[in-house]
Amino acid sequence: MTVKHDLELVDVTKRYGPNVAVDAIQHRFQPSSYTCLLGPSGCGKSSTLRMIAGHESVTEGSILLSGRDISDLPPARRGTAMMFQNYALFPHLSVRDNIAFSLKMKGVEPKERHTKAGEMLELVDLTILADRLPDQLSGGQQQRVALARALITRPEVLLLDEPLSALDPFLRIRMRGELKKLQKELGISFIHVTHGQDEALALADEIVVMNDAVIEQAGPARDVFNAPKTRFVAQFMGGHNVIALPNGCFAIRTDAVTVTAPKKGTLDAQVTAVEYQGTHVSLLSRISGDQEVTAMVPEAIYFTNPHHPGDQIGLHWDAKNLHQLTA
Ligand SMILES: Nc1ncnc2c1ncn2[C@@H]1O[C@H](COP(=O)(O)OP(=O)(O)OP(=O)(O)O)[C@@H](O)[C@H]1O
């Protein structure tokens, strides 16, 4: 049964000439949830987002919102709104007029526009900057204007294309907290395109990992991180080793590998590199078959018995932490 404001992709394909950018993907986005579309450059995530927004045509398949086929509707009639990577603010318009712009285009009366823009200014905490021009704002403030401008149309789904990429790392972390809070407050769905795993893990209720025009894995953030199904997902999410064992190929988290002196019941390994990372020390070692294994050792434990490149060590893990990979 279709739930209210449920967005569904049914066999959605995008071709640019002979190139397949998105290949018959299927997914149902949960209502009122924060989803991150995650994948490397060129995997098709922006094309997917643009098709949902209506800025790109669907070559095959359909997009349903609340059970209604929106595939051929113009962007303004879909119930979606998009926030762009570079914010695309009008430089000659004040913050208030930028936010109210789409209502003006729709022919909404000035008084009502003003009231609604005021509500949005309050929502993103920019009331006192309402009369400024975009170039008189910081990057984070510009981002909030862009958010307010997208939200004033009262979308059922907000689409965000790399919304944090223009910000410095410190502000990026602060703004991602604000995005998450806003999504929970508004109770609408956010679909956020990113190529950053940490960003996706920090924000998403659900992560959809794309690779090479298809969805490799989708699920709650914790499941995707803890139980990657394919080699690609394990390596792209990071924090895992992919190891070929006699009974198959497995992923194991780097912090689930323990390091001891070589002894019975451990796997012989030779340390190849040691990297101090603050809370942890990353210990890279080589096992038989020329395979490399990383162990993330808590720094206090590492320094009670430090190892150095060339040292022989023993590696150990609990078999229940191994996840068999399907591809
Ligand atoms: N307008 C276009 N014309 C032709 N090919 C395109 C067009 N837009 C995207 N592509 C191609 O489609 C594929 C998917 O592109 P898309 O922008 O969706 O990927 P992406 O995952 O969002 O990448 P990025 O993170 O670099 O933005 C790429 O191979 C890209 O070169």
From TrEMBL:
Class of this enzyme: hydrolase
Domain of life: Bacteria
Keyword match Hydrolase: yes
Name under which the protein is recorded: Spermidine/putrescine import ATP-binding protein PotA
Residues of the ABC transporter domain: 7-237
InterPro entries named in the record: AAA+_ATPase, ABC_SmlMolc_Importer, ABC_transporter-like_ATP-bd, ABC_transporter-like_CS, Mo/tungstate-bd_C_term_dom, P-loop_NTPase, Transp-assoc_OB_typ2
Lineage: Bacteria, Pseudomonadati, Pseudomonadota, Alphaproteobacteria, Rhodobacterales
Enzyme Commission numbers on file: 3.6.3.31
GO cellular component, one term: ATP-binding cassette (ABC) transporter complex
Keyword Translocase annotated: no
Pfam families: ABC_tran (PF00005), TOBE_2 (PF08402)
Keywords, in A-Z order: ATP-binding, Hydrolase, Nucleotide-binding, Transport
Gene Ontology biological process terms in this record: quaternary ammonium group transport
GO terms for MF: ATP binding; ATP hydrolysis activity; transmembrane transporter activity
